[in-house]
Specification:
CATH architecture of the largest domain: Sandwich
Order of helices and strands: HHHHEHEEEEEEEE
Mean pLDDT: 88
Structural class: alpha+beta
Bound molecules: heme C
Distance between the termini: 59 Å
Number of helices: 5
Shape: globular
Radius of gyration: 18 Å
Low-confidence stretches: 1-8, 10-15
CATH class of the largest domain: Mainly Beta
Number of strands: 9
Length: about 200
């Protein structure tokens, strides 16, 4: 293979430094790309269809992103495959289990209207998640464990305000919440509390 073709593949295969990829790109990857690439832990990229095809593939899903974002999105897939985990997110997890609108805005991907919230380590047990929005809430919330176990919670609240659902954690580990909304309102708060 000519060196020029090999070079981008080698660049992408470099180990990804923790948290040097901007949070917004990580949120975009976790709400868009991860829905297909979640739990791919093969350790390496195959590039079976070639670098050019991979670039086109990323642009088809992400739209016309700048080259550095495109590179970061590709590196996030490398990280998924090598570390078999989500990329570390540079944001503090509130100790009281309440996320305000400012924090949630940083965890929002406006293009796909979805949020990806690191919930921190949740010990085994039952939890109640409460979402608030200035208007009707509709969409699908997912609770995802560090090992990519995913539980779906379709949410449908035609009235203004708030909706809650209860989820169980069988084995204590780091957890995430992904919420894809079919409405245009921003989340105004999220609360996670023990329910037992
Ligand atoms: C609808 C499902 C879907 C979405 C969404 C998606 N992909 Fe893919 N992607 C695939 C499939 C299927 C392949 C080919 C099989 C494979 O290598 O995993 C692929 C291949 C790739 C490859 C080449 C993998 C390799 O081993 O050579 C990269 C890199 C990639 N995707 C990155 C992304 C990024 C970044 C996003 C988000 C912008 C994304 N994909 C969104 C389904 C998807």
């Amino acid at each position: 293979m000519p060196l020029l073709l090999l070079l981008p593949a080698l660049l992408w295969a470099l180990p990804v430094q923790a948290t040097d990829i901007p949070l917004a790109t990580v949120v975009r990857f976790n709400t868009l790309c991860a829905t297909c690439h979640e739990g791919e832990c093969s350790g390496r990229l195959s590039f079976d269809s070639g670098i050019r095809a991979t670039e086109n593939h990323i642009r088809r899903h992400a739209g016309d992103v700048p080259p550095d974002v495109l590179g970061d999105l590709a590196r996030l897939l490398v990280h998924t495959k090598q570390a078999c985990s989500y990329y570390p997110m540079a944001i503090e997890i509130p100790k009281d289990g309440r996320w305000d609108s400012g924090t949630l805005a940083l965890l929002h991907n406006a293009k796909e209207n979805a949020w990806f919230v690191p919930l921190g380590h949740l010990p085994a047990g039952r939890y109640r998640a409460t979402l608030r929005q200035n208007g009707p809430i509709e969409g699908v919330a997912q609770i995802i464990s560090e090992r990519f176990d995913i539980a779906d919670f379709p949410l449908h609240c035609p009235e203004d305000g708030q909706i809650a659902f209860v989820f169980a954690v069988d084995r204590g580990s780091f957890h995430f919440l992904r919420f894809r909304s079919t409405r245009n309102q921003a989340l105004s708060s999220l609360e996670i509390r023990r329910a037992d």
